[in-house]
Amino acid sequence: TTSAIAITAQGGDVVANDFIKTTDATIEITGDNDVSFTNLLSDLTSSGTGAVTIIATKGDITQADGSTIDGGSDKVTLTAGASQTLDQVKTAGADIVVTAQNGSVTAKDFITTSNANVGITAAQNVTLFNAEADVTSTGSGDVTITATAGDLYQENDSTIDGGTGKVTLTAGKKVTLDQVQTTTSVIKVTAQGGDVVANDFMKTSDAAIEITGDNDVSFTNGLSDVTSSGTGAVTIIATKGDITQANGSTIDGGSDKVTLTAGDSLTLDQVQTTGAEIAITAQTGSVTAKDFITTSNANIGITAAQNVTLFNDEADVTSTGLGDVTITATAGDLYQEDESTIDGGTGNVTLKAGNDVTLDQLRTNTADITVTADNGSILANDFIRTKDGSITLLAHKDVTLNNPESDVISEASGSIDITATTGKIVQNDGSEIDGGDGRVSLTSAQDMRIATLRTGAGTSGASYDGVTRMIGISLRSISGTISLGEISATNHIDIVAGNSIVESNAFVDHGNGSVQLTTAVLKGDTVAMIAEGGTIGTSASDRFEVETTAQDGSEIVVARDQFATKRRYTTLQARDGIYMAEVSGDLSADRVIAGTAKGGSNDNAEIALAIRNGSSDIGTISAPEKIDMRASGQDIQIENLTSRNADLYVEGNDGRLDIEKGSLGESTVMEAQHISLTKLENYVNSEQLLMKVTGLNGSLAQTVNANISAPKKIQFDLLRTNKAVFDVQSVKTRIVTGQITGDMIMSLPFAKMLMDNVTQKIRLGYELQLFDNNTYFNELSFDDTDFNLPVDTRIVTMDDSIFHGPIVIDDPEDRIGRITATTPTETPRPTTNTATTPAQTTTTTTTNNAPGNITVASGSVVGLGRPATGGGGSAVVTGQGSTPSNNGGFQNAVFQPSLSVGNLTPATPASTTGSGAAPAANTPVNTPAAPTNPVTSGTAGVAGSTPAGTTGTSGANGANGAGGAAAGTTGGAGAIGAGATTGQPDPNADSGTGNGNGSDEQDQ
Asked: Which of 548, 654, 741, 811 is the most exposed place for a label (fewest CB within 10 A)?
C-alpha cells in the first residue's frame, strides 16, 4: 500500500491484466522485451510522491484502451527500446517523460500533468492518434515532443497545451498539427525534413510562435489560426517550399511582429497585427493574398521574387496610422483585383514590380505613394489618392488610367509625377489627375492622352524668355503625340511633345454626368506647348481646338494695354507646324515657333491660328513657310514675325493689326481696320515682296501705317484704305490696284510722295503729289529712275531738291493720263494712242550735260525754268500746245528727268478746290490759243484775256492753271522756275481762281 513495487522480466515480457498500485512509493516495471497493459483494468497508480518507471528494454510499451498510468505527484518515465502505444498517462505536478528509443510513440488518449514538463521523444514518429490524445501541461511546465527521424502527427481535435510553459514540437520529417496552445509562453514547431501542416489553431499570449518547415507550411482550413495575442512575435518559415493559408485562416501577431518567409511562394488569407510590422517574403516564388493583410502604426512589407497578387476584393493591404506599406514583385507582376485596397494610413506606400503593375484602390493619408514597373506597364483601374503627400508612377512601358474611377489625386501640396520611360501615358475618359496645390509632371517616350488634369500652385523651375515660371503642370512626350482634354493650373502649364499636340475629345464629368469635350480646355496662368517632331493640331482643316480660361472657368479679359504684361500662353512650338484654334477667348503667347524644335527642322512648316472669340497678343511668331492667323476680336498684336508668307486677319469692327517687327520672304495678306507695321522687311532676297493690305474680306481699311524694306521690289496687288503712311526702302515699289479714299503718304528712298484725295491741293514737302477720286486706281509704281503713275492722275509735282526740276503739272480739267519720268539717258516710254506732232517752236541749247526732254500732249501746259542765278543747262520742250517754250533749261545737275505725257482723256473737273464749274453738257472746251507776251523767268505773268479772272496766288513753281478756268489770271512770280504763261480763257466757263501751285498748306 505504501511501499515500492518492482517488477522485472529479465528475459521476457511484462504483461499486466489488472491494476498495479501503491501510495507514496515508487513503481518500477522492467521487461527485457515488451511491457503491456492489456485492458482497461490494467491501471498503474502511484498516488502521492512515488515515481513510476516503466522500461521495455528491447520491445514496446503498450496500453490498452482505458488503461491509465498515474504517477501521482511524482514523475512518470516510460522508456521503450522500440515503440510505445499509450492510452492515459498523467501526473499531478510532476514530469512525464516518454521515450521510444528506436521506434515511435502513439498516444490514444491524454498525456497530462500540471506545473511540470511533458517530454515525448521517438526515434521515428510521434502520433497523437485521436481527438482524446491531448498532451497537456497546465501551469508552468513545458511540452516537448520530438519525432527524431519521422513525422509528428496530431489528429483532429487533439490538443497540445503548454499552459504557461513552452511548447516545442520537432520532427525529422513532417509535422501535422491540430490544436496547439500555451497561455503565455513560446510555441515552436519545426519540421526538419518535411512540411508543417496546421489543421486547427495555434495560439499563445505575450509569447512568440515560431513555425519552420523544411518544405511547406500550410494552414488547411478556416480553423487554422496562428495567434500570438500581446507582445509575442509570429515567425513562419517554409525553408524550401510554400506557406499556404486556407480561406478564413488568420495569422495574428497581436502587438508584435509577423514574419512570413517562404523559400518558394506564399498564399495568404488573413494576416494582422496591432501596432507591429508584417514582413512577408517569397524568396523564389510569388505572394498571393486572398484576404486582408493589416496592421496599425507599423510597416507592412511584402516581397516576392516573382509575382504579388491581391487576389480578390477582400485582399486589402492596410497600415492605419504611421506605418509604411511596401510591396515588391521583384521579377514579376504586381496585381490588385477590383475593389481591393492598399492603404498606407499616414505612412508611405511603395509598390514595385519587375514587370507589370495592375492597381485598384491605392491611398495614403498624408504620405507619399510610389509605384514602379521596372520592365513593364502600370494599369490603374481605380483611384490613387493621398491628402498631403506626393504620388510617383514610373513604368518602363505604359501608364494607363483605365477607368472613370482611375483618379490620381494629391489633395494638398504633394506633387504628382507619372513617367512611361519607353511607352505611352493614357488617361481614359472620366479619369482625373488632381495635384491639389502641388506640381503635376507627366513624361512619356511615346504618345500621351490626357482627359482631365488639374493642379494649384506648383513649383519654380522653368525659364522662358528670361522669366522663371512656377510650374503647375508639365507634360513631356519624348517622341509621341500629346492629346489634350481639360487641363487646369493656377500657374504655368508646360507641354512638350516629341511629335504633335492635338485634342483628345475626352469625356469629362463635372458632377452632372459625362460630357464629351470637342476642344482641349486649358485653364490657368501661362502655357508652353512644344511639338518637337510634329505639329500642334493636325492640319489647317483639322485644328487643335483650345478653350483657355481662368482656373475657375471664367474668361480672362485682357485690355489692349495689358497684353504684353499678361500673356497667358508662354510658348507654342512645333517642328512640323501649328494648327490651332482658341475657341473661348484671347490667345496670348510669348513665342509661337514652327519649323524648328529639338526634333530637328522643317522648311515647309506652317502656323495656322484661329482666335474665334477674342484677340491675340504674341511676342515672337515664326514659321518657315506660312503663318495664317485670324482673330474674331479687336486685336492681333505681334512683336516679332518671321515667315516666308503671312496671312493675318482681324475681324473686329475696330480691329487692329499691330506688328512691331516683321520679316517676310514672299508675300503677305493683311486685313484689319487699322494696320500698323513698325518695321517690315523682306528677309529673303526674293524678286519681290507681294502684299495685299485691306480691311476684312478686301473691304476698305481705315488706317495703314507701315515701314517696309525690300532689297528688290515691293508690290501691292491690292491696297485699300482711307489713310496710309508708308516709309518704303526698296529699289522699286508697285501698287497694282489701289483705293485711297483719304490720303496716302509714301516716303521712298529718293522721294516723298503724297496722294491726296481729299483736299486736292498742292501741299508742301512732297516731291511727288497725286490726286485721284475714282473708286480704284491701277498701276502706280516707283523706282529710283522711273515713275509710272495711274491714268487718272490729276496733280503731279516734283521738288527741286530731289529732281532738280522743278516740274509742275496741274491739269484739273483734262486728266493728263499716264506720266513717265525717267533719267535723261533713258528713252521716255512711248505714249499710247496719242499722236505726236512737231512743236511749232523748238529751241535747243547745247551744254556739256545731256539735255532733259519733255514731251507735252495737246492741252497740257508745262513751265520749265531755273533760278536766275543758276548754272548753265539746257532743255528741249516739244508738244502740241500753241507755244511750247524753253526758258533756259534744267539746272546743271546729276539727275535730270525726262517727262512724257500721254493718254489724254476728258474728265469731269473737281467740284470745289481751285477750278471753275464744269462745262455744260456737250459743250466743247475751246481750243486754247497761243499764249501772248510770255513772261521771262522770275517775273509776274501777263494777265489773260477777258473776261478777267481773279489774281492767282504766287506759285512755288510759277505755272498757272490750264484751260478749265475762265480767263487766266496773272501768275505770281515763280520762286525758282519760269514765270507763268498767260492763262487761256474759256468763254463758256464761269470765272474761277487760277491755280498758281502756291498753297502755304503743310502736310498734316
From this structure: 654
